[in-house]
């Protein structure tokens, strides 16, 4: 038995008796990096020392030392270093041979080329430019055409560079198209049930309680016509800003029983300036003053011994005597008699009312009924109902001294939204499919007086209380709720519901602090409010529809049908439309001599002088097309993906881009593709340079005209530029390259539709669902733009993807493209930090790790988020000892809870409704709540 000092644990004589290299290599599928090293330095040293004691090498038996300073052992250490380096680079080389594990762009590019895939070079952003033409008052401007290549440059912000855009299609332009107003008035015509009208000017001298007459040509020509109305005003509201006055009354125009419509043809409005009575209304009662011997007795009718009356005490149908002498009552004017009988008529004019037109006027004195005075005697144009029983002298009210008032068209106050647009004037030159730039303030909504208990449910969670007088902006069309069932309202219908307590409305609004939310309120709790001068303007591009006669012209204005509903809700008075709109894309045109052809040289190559070469969105399988046009001896040659298999005389070329974005053009060798013909500087190119996300400039940034067509004074982009994409990063290339093999540039299965869209330029993610029946029958495709940006339906990437799927998929299968729903969550973590680490640096690293793990790039449609996943990400940060998730909830839900797992919805097929788009659940942009545990 050995002594304790000679045990294996202390003497080391048993160390290195087994060879541990080459180590076993085992790589399960799905790894982001593979292990391919057969050993490391220590493993190689141990294996070589084991060989020193092997029976297979008896010549080394005499070498018994294991001291590191021994020359032989030092030699094994040096060899182990070499083997360690060799194994390391062998593993690196092995990783570079697989698409999932390669880290070098060259490796990924070359492997992708083996399956015919080229790393995407990026794509240029696109937008529309609205041009302003010079307008000289009184001088008609000639229409012009804004040519292709008109350049406009952005105004850069801090740390930004100016970006150039060029128009890509010629468009007609006119000065009168600079700011086309929408319809703000409708011609006034009395309608059954009307309770208001508008008068010209603000000095009408009308007051509440005054009476007006609405009469038309039919009553003027036919005395027996009943198409007229006398109404007593409840309100007179001058509109000083627009030089007009609104008058209101309670009793609607027309008659219910018997049914009678108001005046229709040649309607006029007259104000009755005088309220008077018939002569005799104040005559003394003959029962108080008569006797057999008086002269008065001769004037009294005593046939009825219980009720004496004056002789002829009744209205004369031939001559109506008014109690006053009014020189302003003239022939052709109107008078109205009101019987003042309780129980009939309206509250303001009780009794029976009859209208008469004055045929003749006499101003005289009259002595009768025991009284005398000056009167105005008028001869009416008809004696209809002019009887003492209908209009007794003592009870009848006379409305006289009519004065005609000028009316104006009825203003339209409801907002502008939806897919119908009526212009303020006739514009016959507009064409179907033409783009329009709309700009103006959003419609304001005010909380009505005495409205209480209202609050705005914020999209970001929580609520904001609203009180009387608060004003908000509408951000979406109005919805009426029937129980829990929402029904979309047209703008005109929405305005008509305001003021009604029986109507429940749901509105999407934005408050003065920029917070968006939803308000549910009764119609009488809301009212439309006027825009203010400092209201911010919103803008968008809309397109006139192309089918079913989208443009209708009447005598005064044009009515348009739009290709899609407007994205904004505009205040009607401030909305303006610019029809001088041209499509434009990012990039700057370059024309250059590329070089000289040499027929004796095969596969000639030339590099473009400027980079990056611009690619624009197109309906190709890749979603992009090059802007390069190459001519040899003024003959246009064609770019092909590869010269392989090209005919010997084919005038074709291929292009290759390096990692720096430089483009090289290669020609054929006479066997695959034609050689260049010899000539001096006979290669000429025209292309554009510039692309990428830098071109996704905000709305209103493109304002500097670099080229100025005749008559053009300004330009701007009402909508932001979208679709710009940088050169494809490695992460996307690893995912997209195999998709070309899966789809082979066609879409057949439902997975093909999703894969085709994912690999299409301008899109990052896609989810496809097949709906066999229902209102959305067909392919339901949820899409997400670059870095999660929404893809507008009027953008080139959206339209080109739809066109490409129709071309490379089944054109008979219905296709619906919808933008994804951006769902967000918030979290709060308690973190214990290792005392050896700096706390602030660790917390910053934790937040960065969470944002990377739960950002758009790393998440998929329908992917859940759990407490364990959040804790695991934070726990993986160096310096974190422990983590406790104290809050986890979706934005808009209870913020004081921990939901173990948050779910993101995917579309669900339905036979009765259109599915909702897929959700992508990512971390909210708000700062993450991190607290330090002691």
Can you walk me through this structure?
The chain is of the alpha+beta class and 934 residues long. Helix content is 13%, strand content 32%. It contains 11 helices and 56 strands. A 10-stranded antiparallel beta sheet has the order 8-11-10-9-12-19-16-17-18-15. Strands 23, 24, 25, 26, 27, 28, 29, 30 and 31 form a 9-stranded antiparallel beta sheet that branches. Strand 29 (504-510) and strand 30 (516-522) form a beta hairpin. 31% of the residues are buried. Residues 1-16 have low confidence and may be disordered. This is Baseplate assembly protein. Residues 712-732 are annotated as: Disordered.
In total, the number of strands is: 56
Helix content: 10-25%
Number of helical stretches of at least 4 residues:
11
Strand content: 25-35%
Separation, N- and C-terminal Cα atoms: 55 Å
Poorly predicted ranges: 1-16
Name the average pLDDT. Answer: 90
Strand arrangement, major sheet? 8-11-10-9-12-19-16-17-18-15
Instruction: Tell me the radius of gyration.
Output: 44 Å
- The domain count comes to 6
Major β-sheet, in short? 10 strands, antiparallel
Gross morphology: elongated
Question: Structural class from helices and strands?
Answer: alpha+beta
Provide a concise account of the structure shown:
This protein is α+β, with helices and mostly antiparallel strands and 934 residues long.
